[in-house]
Amino acid sequence: MAVRGATSTHYHNAFAYANSQYGKPYGLDPFDGADSYFCSELVRDSWYNAGISVAGNTNWVFPHEIYQHANTIAVKKYGSGY
Questions:
Q1: Domain total for the chain?
Q2: CB count, 10 Å around CB of 69?
């Protein structure tokens, strides 16, 4: 995934935020607060913290919402099957 308008600082900040959440449990309940993350929530929150929206601001976010967002660009890795 690439993010439209993102600078290297945005990428660094998104990564730093995601890395700072290391150790929190994986969770499927969007209403359990900040104690756990669903994979798409972590991506959304990391980019939001970096200053770029890649999904809506609802509690629950699905991977296709990030994939289809105007600020994201799907990058195909050859041989990945996607």
A1: 1
A2: 20
